[in-house]
User: Fold these one by one.
Assistant:
Number 1:
Amino acid sequence: MHQTYDAALGINLLHANQAGAEHNRAHLDAWGITCLNIMSSPGAGKTALLERTLAALTADFRIAVIEGDMTTELDADRLRQYGVPVIAINTGRSCHLDSRMVSGGLHRLEHEYNPAEFDLLLVENVGNLVCPAEFEVGEHAKVALLSVTEGEDKPLKYPIMFQEADCLLITKMDLAPYLDVDLERIIANVRQMNTTVKIIPVSAKTGEGLEVWLDWVRSVTKPTGVPA
Ligand SMILES: Nc1nc2c(ncn2[C@@H]2O[C@H](COP(=O)(O)OP(=O)(O)OP(=O)(O)O)[C@@H](O)[C@H]2O)c(=O)[nH]1
Ligand SMILES: [Mg+2]
């Protein structure tokens, strides 16, 4: 039996969230910060990618992180080791960050630092391939990760994430030789959903593809602050 979905309630929620996202983006624009919303299913490698990204880019850009997890500061603590401000947001029972939560994070950034000094805000969303794609937080671009262990069909089964993404990283490429996975099939399925998304196969373990990813991040980030 199908459960009925209250479409009107869903639309109202998304509408309110969108207004908050636009408000957040106006603040980010005023501060000269580029914001990337990084999303994937649990464990696809978001934090591992951010570790490699921070290691490579903190010399050139002033970076802050908002780390969304239902509970714990485990990921936030991993990223704090790179010497950047990491604002942890625990979403409790919610499976995604929303614009109100991120607004709270921006207020904390504003309270503790001079936000105009930052160039780049990396938001690690809660691990979930569905809801984060629908709830904008004020980002300038959406980055989705899909690991090779998840199966070629995921872009077809979870279309919104792949339709919305500006950049898609196919992660854990080092594991591909051990799996029955067809990279060309993954890419073809992503292309069915999105003809323009930038697709980058990467491995946080071996470093494969990371320069292409870092170049993409550089291309969307304008340095305005003073490197620490
Ligand atoms: N072999 C391999 N393992 C990886 C790679 N990237 C991440 N992992 C492993 O995958 C697991 C999950 O990685 P995380 O970076 O924590 O994934 P996440 O998407 O941040 O997970 P959540 O925040 O819980 O959703 C860890 O055991 C990582 O070591 C990779 O490129 N290759
Ligand atoms: Mg993580």
Note: The mean pLDDT is 94.
Number 2:
Amino acid sequence: MSEELRESDLDAVREQLGREPTVPFSVIARCSDGHPLVIRNRPLDADGHPFPTIFWLTCPTAVRSVSRLESDGWIGRLADDPELVERIEKAHAAYASERGRMAPGAERWGGVGGTDHGLKCLHAHYAYHLAGGDDVVGAWTAARVEPVHPPELRRRVAAIDQGTNSTRLLVLQPRDGEPIEICRDMVITRLGKSVDEKGTLDPAAIERAAEAIAWFRRRASALHAEEVRIGATSAVRDASDREDFLSRVRDMTGIEPEVIEGEREAALSFLGGTRGLDPADGPFLLVDIGGGSTEFVTGRTPGVMEHSISTQMGSVRLTERVRPSDPPTGDDLRRFESLVRAQLDEVERIVPVEEGRTLVAVAGTATTLQACTLGLERYDPDLVHRSMLTLADAERTLGELAAMTNEERAAIPVMPTGRGDVIVAGASILVHAMRRFGFEQALISETDILDGLALELLGVR
Ligand SMILES: [Zn+2]
């Protein structure tokens, strides 16, 4: 399983805590100038011992504000409030099951901060609230300590992207120049499971994805996003029963999800993926390999799409079509190749790929392939974003991944949970596209349609 962590964040959290962090973690919320506010700890430490506090408040200013409430005696007063008892128990139960999702069995280690009932630590409840937990005490704390750093900048926006394989959240705060990332997070929900085969969504997958969206939506609100949009792509687009999913999300979030059609997806992906690149490196060809579809997009100017095609191939879809052995056989790999090549014929007819000078590859397949190629021990987005992946390296890493079993791939430190079984298909798309269109290297970008959705809310073009 992979958790994202930048070297700069590790340094910042070490300094905030005044000690070496004891478990691997990711930063899941930041203050206005970008320093870590809440981290998500892995439920097990390096020796496999339980670490029951998943969400941890790290910003020292926030910690001090909450400590003041505690020393004013609020823990006792809140715990004794008969109107709160039931709602506190509910928060404990939800926290425990969240931990169980991260590590099966870990739901038995108690609720917020490892407590089963009552109140022990307001910091843990506040961190849970900021993470998106439905926590009455955390929300009460927020109302008393925020803004933690006055005057807090406002006009934050949030985008949630529901793809075929993953559900992702981005919260941005506008600023002169580059917006500041307040939160970027991802969970694999595989909403597109069996859509290619059956044409309908799996009820369990609908529930899984809708819950993830509701959780991210609460986090966006806790982080004061004034506008929140939810975009859904290939899996929802293709499913005949998409209304079941859309109404479930509507009910759980109060937001009308947007079904993003292929051409819009291409434009948003191009906006997010190429914005900020040097125009002198254009024209650009962007490839966005998703779970259900892959977009090829061209444009001479960063951020401005000119031609695009959305193809019906993706890492999940190809894996479900070929149903490779574990590990895949040579025949399986040739079937991936022939399915990809058939789609690339179509791409060449519609999009002037030969005009592209810089190939930009976005989304989880490309970034994970690069992290494997770089041999990272921990997924550090700063090392992946806008780094070059050569065709020779991409081919070699694909070969290594294809020689492994699903279990072996899942155990690679930078492999996100739920990507190991589909990355061979996804990486095949990238390698065959590079070969076919004559690109010796690809610029790997962490930013993509998710950024496009959020930037559009900020009015950035
Ligand atoms: Zn802070």
Note: The domain at 276-452 is CATH 3.30.420.150 (Nucleotidyltransferase; domain 5).
Number 3:
Amino acid sequence: MPGHSYLRLGIHMKPLMVAFDVAGTTVADGGVVIESFSQAFKRTQPELWETKSETLMAYALETMGQSKIAVFTHLIGDVQQAEIANVAFEQAYLEEVESNGVASIPGAEETFEFLKSHAIHIVLTTGFSRPTLDVILKSLNWQSRISLSVTPAEAGRGRPFPDMLVKAASDLLVLDHANTIVVGDTVADIQAGLTFGASRVIGVLSGAHTNEMFIDAHATSVINSVADLPSLI
Ligand SMILES: [Mg+2]
């Protein structure tokens, strides 16, 4: 049937946009995000931390990739207190960045160069707020290397919802969502990419979640890191 071969050609067409997650995907994490979670609870919710630290950390790890404020709201059950905890989280993360710096995932910049040389848009999406993301981007000098970045608040909702991807595609005039690739280190990234309608939704093993978790989440491929992405395009 001609329709089938056309569809197959469509899937293998050069993508117009690749959307990457930040922490654990393009930026090395090394446990900083999870440590910042525990710092935030210790500083703002000492009683909750005292009795429930294991439950809190298990949930934080499982929901890695989602909007941090949404995770705090779920765990604390109070929007205002969650906002306070989120501020403490971002502060703890920034303290870490200030003392140890930010490192890119090896090969991330080469992958960006590859995409740029093929005129493919590079998008970054995140669970961080804009001020934190900007500190990361500035410290890596990435603002000029990417097409755009989106935070949960700017798009509506964070992952697992596809809002950041929808906003990026709309801003870049990428009308056919199937003509995009989404790459991330968490199940939330995969869920967002599939709902968005990307033809390829790829898990990377350089961050929070495992191969098994990606397969369960129906990732279309799993690679060791973004360094392996050019070989798939
Ligand atoms: Mg991540």
Note: The pocket of magnesium ion is lined by residues 21, 23-25, 65, 184-186, 207 (CB under 6 Å).
Number 4:
Amino acid sequence: MYINFWYPVCIADELTAVEPMRTKILGLHFVAFRDSDGAAHVLADTCIHRGGALGKGKIVDGNVECPYHGWQFDGSGSCTYIPFLENGSKMPARAKVDSYPVIERYGIVFAFLGDLPEEERVPLFEIPEWGREGWRENRLVKFELDGYYERSIENGVDPTHNQFVHPLQGNIKFIPEYLTVESDDWCTTVTTRMEPPKPGTVKLAHLRNDDDPENFGSSTGHYGPNTLITRINLSADNCFAQYFFEQPIDDSHTRIFFVNMRNCMLEPENDIRIEQINLAIADEDITLIAGLYPVRTPETTTKEILIKGDECIVGYREHLKGWEKRGWRIDLKTMRNTYGDVAYAIPSPGRRTQKNWVLDSVPLIQASS
Ligand code: FES
Ligand SMILES: [Fe+2]
């Protein structure tokens, strides 16, 4: 798992100015809430007094109040009120928690979990079809997976699993000669063509038997460590674009925020049917990923055999290696060894400009060249 990327925190509509929401991402807890103006905030969940869970507290005057002794924190993470501070005493300089940059988009609250200053941050992924004429989005759905998010991304960028894992799709075969893999700073994308389904094998309404193989293809890719992009082109006017914004809950559980766009069957009454199909397909992947052993990908490729169809997976892993070299990879072994004894926080941008933080910054694998 990596710091310095945008992670989905919650569905925007679920976040209110009435109650805080507590969620776990990258193995640590966060509290999300809205202030009196409706602006969303995401803070580290651990109260720096004596370890209360802010996400189990309440919202008072737009601040989040710890349930243990009532200390209050505003959206910037500063402590604004301590009930039993002696008269005339100043607020302790260290009375602050990490606060993370937030963007609300696609109906999701995203937080940048890391300490990079704004000009160095990777942009939040932009969905090209969002708001474009001729495209319609399905209701945003969220589901959980008993597995590690990197296994889920690798599954998504793997064109060779479809015909085995997704029989509902009519056992569509990809054509190996047309497989191409491209890469840039943040993504790797694999593009394939597929054999149109044979007559009588199609079980899904949106797959047709008469499509031209020239256009019958898909591309899948990752953006950063935790965004999965899938484009399925059945023909020019029959396309689906699917986006998984993945929230690594910890090193073996994942929550996925799924945005589905389409340029066909635009009538709203098709939404439910398409959602059902998508979730049935996702379910096939969930079942498969939950059975993978080991839970996380092995540290060395000698413990697997990778072949041509795994090229995009290799590209993904190379990107992850690059982010590890920058010093962004969380040191899970140290975290596990100190579990229960040390409270960590993902470092926020505030740590670059202010000193005196109560919580330890999460252990990271040292940057290397
Ligand atoms: S632990 Fe939060 S106020 Fe005491
Ligand atoms: Fe799949």
Note: Residues 202-211 have pLDDT under 50 and may be disordered.
